[in-house]
């Protein structure tokens, strides 16, 4: 699907052909040339789409923020004066030769780089968007590393990772036991023509 993450691209990869997958962070149309800031969990990379590649240009033209795209293109240095030293990938860009729309998206309720101006209630309601922010991704990555380190240490010490059922006592007006009807089963004796229905706890 992809050959690299967006944040992995750098000047040493000039003239290499790469495949990127990610969200459209921003889209800009400058005199017929479309610029896409592609974002994934690793960072942001600028993609340039020329009208010479008709199909790729048409797909890029209809792309909007948070569309999911697959980009195939060649890495090149940015022209003098357009470089961005504040970005890890600010010295290069990807000249796209193929743009594929993997998924469309409705207009997001807030921009990911403007989350500070949005109330917490809206961010929690649209949590699936809020979790795409770099700050949240860093926290998820840290949590994953901590969990992996603890589990690896305990496993090396001979512990077994066992997930047991959670047992809770029934409470009045609380969680209720649900019974699901099972398929009717024929009685064991062949002389008995009656069928008995059994129920099992879900």
UniProtKB/TrEMBL annotation:
SUPFAM superfamilies, from UniProt? Class II aaRS and biotin synthetases, Nucleic acid-binding proteins
Record Gene3D superfamilies = Bira Bifunctional Protein, Domain 2, Nucleic acid-binding proteins
Q: Which GO terms describe its biological process?
A: aspartyl-tRNA aminoacylation
Q: What EC designation does it have?
A: 6.1.1.12
Instruction: Say if the entry is tagged with keyword Cytoplasm.
Output: yes
Name the enzyme group at the top EC level. Answer: ligase
- Hydrolase as a keyword of this entry, yes or no, is no
**CDD domains recorded:** EcAspRS_like_N (cd04317)
Q: Which gene encodes it?
A: aspS_3
Q: Which Pfam family, giving just one, matches this sequence?
A: tRNA_anti-codon
Query: What UniProt keywords apply to this chain's record, in alphabetical order?
Result: Aminoacyl-tRNA synthetase, ATP-binding, Cytoplasm, Ligase, Nucleotide-binding, Protein biosynthesis
Instruction: Name the InterPro entries on file.
Output: Aa-tRNA-synt_II, aa-tRNA-synth_II/BPL/LPL, Asp-tRNA-ligase_1_N, NA-bd_OB-fold, NA-bd_OB_tRNA
Please identify the protein, giving its name as recorded.
Answer: Aspartate--tRNA ligase
| Natural source organism | Halomonas elongata
Superkingdom of this entry's organism? Bacteria
> Which molecular function terms from Gene Ontology are attached?
aspartate-tRNA ligase activity; ATP binding; nucleic acid binding
Annotated Aminoacyl-tRNA synthetase class II (D/K/N) domain ranges read 120-177
* Domain (OB) ranges: 18-102
